[in-house]
Design a protein that fits this description.
Blueprint lengths: L5 E7 L4 E8 L4 E5 L5 H10 L3 E6 L5 H4 L1 E3 L2 E3 L1 H8 L3 E5 L3 H7 L7 E4 L4 E4 L2 E7 L8 E5 L2 E3 L4 E2 L2 E2 L9 H11 L8 E3 L10 E2 H7 L8 H8 L3
Parallel strand pairs: 3-4, 4-7, 7-8, 12-15
Antiparallel strand pairs: 1-2, 2-3, 5-6, 9-10, 10-11, 11-12, 13-14, 15-16
Length: 227
């Protein structure tokens, strides 16, 4: 029997970021995904819904998802969150060299994870899915039949692979082998509002998203600039 899930999608900040609240309706414990912008509003929204935030699940280290310096502007993000609530920051271990350099987080604030690990939010289980490409430690979160995909997979597109730490070959494998292996009925919730709708399904993306339809790595690289 599937447990009920508290799941809320919020669009926050000037870069059209999606932030998510995931929680267990029995224990009223919740996690936030990618708390960067307007942390006060995120915490207030959870509290108004009767939830306490105990974890920050981070898809990747970029400032608009974690916090840090972005084009001369300081985004407090995760550091501000853990100053307000007793939360830990869960991020893939491959992101750690960037995390401590870019944020005010200490080692004790961060829980390094690997693909396949799970975390409990009350009675709710969230699975970490390692999807490198956009960054070395980019990860998605599987909760129930929903995938929160960060900047790995967008509706109709995928994350950039021309940034420091990006790798187009890794992105191709993440899209076609890792996410492509998930059931078609899996709901897709991306990291930005870049489409005409807030969610999709992996089945729809496999059929219509060009980035998931390249037959070979060479074809993908020829389009993404890695050839």
């Amino acid at each position: 029997m599937k447990h009920p899930i508290y799941f809320k999608q919020l669009e926050i900040g000037p870069m059209q970021n999606y932030v998510y609240l995931l929680g267990d309706p029995t224990t009223h414990e919740a996690a936030v995904v990618d708390a960067a912008w307007d942390v006060d509003m995120i915490v207030r929204t959870a509290e108004e819904d009767g939830y306490r935030v105990t974890k920050d699940l981070v898809t990747h280290f970029h400032p608009d998802h974690l916090g840090g310096d972005l084009m001369g502007h300081s985004i407090r993000g995760a550091a501000e969150l853990i100053a307000k609530v007793p939360a830990k920051v869960y991020i893939h271990k491959a992101e750690l060299p960037f995390v401590h350099r870019l944020t005010g987080l200490s080692a004790s604030d961060v829980v390094p994870v690997e693909g396949g690990d799970e975390v409990a939010i009350g009675n709710l289980k969230v699975k970490f899915v390692h999807t490198p490409g956009h960054t070395p430690g980019s990860q998605c979160f599987l909760v129930g039949n929903a995938l929160v995909s960060g900047d790995t997979l967008f509706i109709g597109s995928c994350g950039r692979v021309d940034l420091p730490g990006s790798n187009p070959e890794d992105m191709y494998r993440s899209l076609t082998q890792v996410l492509g292996a998930l059931p078609d009925e899996t709901l897709l919730y991306p990291g930005h509002n870049y489409a005409d709708r807030p969610r999709s399904t992996l089945g729809d993306e496999k059929r219509t998203n060009m980035m998931m339809r390249f037959r070979t790595l060479g074809d993908f690289l020829s389009v993404m600039g890695g050839a």
